[in-house]
Amino acid sequence: LQISELTPSGTSIGNKSIHLSLVIPTYKERDNIKNVVRILSQLLDEAIPGNYELIIVDDDSPDRTWEVAQSLMEVYPQLQVMRRQQERGLSSAVIRGWQVARGRVLGVIDGDLQHPPEILTQLLSAIEQGADLAVASRHVEGGGVSSWSVVRRFLSRGAQVLGLTILPGVLGRVSDPMSGYFMVRRSAIAGVTLNPVGYKILLEVIGRGKVSEIAEVGYVFCERKQGESKVTWKQYVDYIHHLLRLRISTGRLGKISQKVDFPIGRFLRFGLVGLSGVFVDMTVLYLLSDPTTLAWPLTRSKILAGEIAICNNFLWNDAWTFADVSVNQQEWRHRLKRFLKFNIVCLAGLVLNVLVLNLVFNFLIPNRYIANLIAIAVATIWNFWVNLKLSWRV
Ligand code: GDD
Ligand code: MN
């Protein structure tokens, strides 16, 4: 699916161009949509009067959301409603909306008031100041989610880490790649073929668009007032499928795209800290498990030695490797949050370490020490990259 360029007189369908086209994808939002249109219109009538349009794209909702939406068009002249009966899906709904849009800036917002409308003005000014893409993010200062279950938080973070691993050149550029609330300059995606797979249209925009400058605005993802989320396991499967498609078609496998240069200096410091951790691990293992000292069982000693080494590494990394980042977040709650994330990432790194060690030792190089070195190298790159993006958010 492609978005057309704007001609001087307006769009390819021949009408005057305007500043913002905001697409609202809906599926069973009958009880929300009236409020959404009213609040968005009020806000945009104030910010950019007469220079915006709202485009509701409804997938033939069984609760007839499209009917309520169509009835609103008399009251709100800048509202368009598209009722799709042949296609379904969040991403394709957004793209279809953008295809009929007249705006120089294309935006998307959910139709259930979970995305606070007041952020729109901050997104608009970020675009004004030159950003190609302005993303409302839950993971920057001022961002957050209201009462999300631990499972949903874990899944969301897990999806983010998976994305960072499979598609660093794309996922590494925004703190909230899952966001469904953003604005993009039409020129950044005009003429580009966007694949309407899955739930995450933002991946397509960053992965395929000509996006050089990205701005992020923190927002708190609110609780739904009516209806329920349509996110199911299928969306998560779609998401992985989407990452792999993007990786293959954009060749961003592991290759750090030109916009995200690999911080070698920081990586070297991280590696040195890791070495000190190996030294701490070995020393504690000796003190706890050697027959001449406490002679504790090996596994218990290793777990304790590993955890003490992780604490050692965190303190050095926080005070040296990432000092420039952590210096302005010294409150205890920030440090504790960073430590917990660092710990979880490193424990996952430990699991990866053991898996790679066994894989290499049993199938590639039958020398346990060389296999262990390779495993430590893989785990160190994992620990560095994911901590860079998740714990210190560089
Ligand atoms: N047209 C259309 N077709 N709209 C859909 C479909 C669909 O198949 N599925 C969902 N929608 C609409 C919903 O009506 C809602 O307006 C919006 O897309 C988001 O759907 P939810 O089911 O409410 O998703 P969520 O709240 O769990 O997550 C949303 O916010 C996250 C954070 O920004 C989604 O936008 C996620 O993609 C996003 O990561
Ligand atoms: Mn929602």
TrEMBL record:
Keywords in alphabetical order: Glycosyltransferase, Magnesium, Manganese, Membrane, Metal-binding, Transferase, Transmembrane, Transmembrane helix
CDD domains, per database record: DPM1_like
Subcellular location field: Endomembrane system; Membrane
Pathway this chain belongs to: Protein modification; protein glycosylation
Gene3D superfamilies, per database record: Spore Coat Polysaccharide Biosynthesis Protein SpsA, Chain A (3.90.550.10)
PANTHER family: DOLICHOL-PHOSPHATE MANNOSYLTRANSFERASE SUBUNIT 1 (PTHR43398)
Family membership: Belongs to the glycosyltransferase 2 family.
Name of the molecule in the record: Dolichol-phosphate mannosyltransferase
Taxonomy of the source species: Bacteria, Bacillati, Cyanobacteriota, Cyanophyceae, Nostocales
